[in-house]
Amino acid sequence: MVWRKGWCLFAEELIQKGQFVCEYAGEVLTTPEVRRRQIMYDELALVACSRINIDATRIGNVARFIYHSCDGGNLLTKVVRIAGALLHRLCFFASKNIEKDEELSFSYGDTTLKPNGFPCFCGSSCCSGTLPSENT
Ligand SMILES: C[S@@+](CC[C@H](N)C(=O)[O-])C[C@H]1O[C@@H](n2cnc3c(N)ncnc32)[C@H](O)[C@@H]1O
Q: Cellular component per GO (predicted)?
């Protein structure tokens, strides 16, 4: 991956094409804190952590409402870094043309690797019937 002005070229190209949708905002956590919260969320039946440890349960933005789709949906995620910033950011980009009022969705992970046991209602033709776990 090539970096320029803090952004990878791929992300910069997508931004120039107007494909940036939003950032996945939340608390940036250490791995031990992720594990601690995951146990708590499992007990409360909440699923809210992603692999780069951004927890949108308490603090987040519109991205926390985006659902999983087994066919990958219409968004892709990219980890990007802004010049001078210490932390990487997780951003959503459009992976195809999105019509007005079309629901945004992306793949939470590969359900064949580790399904979490909760039913998936994405409705895509390749739906596995189960949501992926945080560990996929
Ligand atoms: C989109 S967030 C939910 C945000 C939460 N309602 C809030 O207020 O912050 C992730 C959750 O949505 C549900 N979800 C996402 N995609 C789903 C799908 N395809 N089928 C069923 N439930 C889904 C799951 O419960 C998952 O843990």
A: chromosome
Distances from the Cα of 8 to the Cαs of 5, 34, 71, 122, 124, in angstroms? 8, 27, 26, 31, 31
- Residues facing residue 77 across a β-bridge: 92
What is the spatial distance between Cα 27 and Cα 61, in angstroms, rounded to a whole number?
11
Residue 105 has pLDDT above 60, yes or no: yes
pLDDT of residue 49: 42
pTM of the full structure = 0.71
d(CA 116, CA 133): 4
Ligand 1: nearest atom to the Cα of 120 = 20
> What is the interface pTM, i.e. ipTM, of the complex?
0.94
- The token pair that represents 135 in the structure block: 């560990």
**Could you give the C-alpha distances from 4 to 10, 12, 13, 57, in angstroms and in order?**
10, 9, 11, 32
| Ligand 1 atom having least distance to the Cα of 122 | 19
Q: Which residues contact 127 (CB under 8 A, 6 or more apart)?
A: 70, 71, 120
Percent of the chain with pLDDT over 90: 32
